[in-house]
């Protein structure tokens, strides 16, 4: 992973992504239709992003990548914290962002999903 800015740019480019600071200036939260799909923060100079994840897949990722840990201050069953320590390829990180975004979109109301599906291709929403 080349850096925090590349991650933020990737997350911000997701359809209808909105950036907010509901937890203070150190926690950048990205939402779609009011639902959080990513939280970017720094811990001791290292960038961390919390991403939603299917529970079984979350366990699998944690067993493969040391940079993937149970979600810090989140429901550890459904969220991972991913540390940008240089060990994780950007392609894998972007896939995790896509997965988190798609899970949140799938959990939106039917009306919210319908509006998004009229505006964007299914691939942009669900990967």
UniProtKB/TrEMBL annotation:
Coiled coil (UniProt feature): none
Domain of life: Bacteria
UniProt xrefs under Pfam families: YjbR
Gene3D superfamilies in the cross-refs: 3.90.1150.30
InterPro entries named among the record's database cross-references: YjbR, YjbR-like_sf, YjbR/MT2646/Rv2570-like
Protein name, entry field: MmcQ/YjbR family DNA-binding protein
Taxonomic source organism: Marinomonas aquimarina
């Amino acid at each position: 992973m080349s850096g925090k800015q590349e991650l933020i740019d990737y997350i911000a480019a997701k359809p209808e992504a909105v950036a907010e600071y509901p937890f203070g200036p150190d926690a950048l939260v990205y939402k779609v239709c009011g639902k959080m799909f990513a939280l970017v923060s720094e811990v001791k100079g290292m960038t961390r992003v919390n991403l939603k994840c299917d529970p079984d897949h979350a366990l699998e990722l944690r067993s493969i990548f040391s940079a993937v840990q149970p979600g810090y201050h989140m429901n550890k069953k459904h969220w991972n914290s991913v540390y940008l320590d240089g060990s994780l390829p950007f392609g894998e990180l972007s896939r995790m962002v896509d997965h988190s975004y798609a899970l949140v979109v799938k959990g939106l109301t039917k009306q919210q999903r319908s509006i998004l599906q009229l505006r964007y291709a299914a691939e942009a929403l669900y990967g």
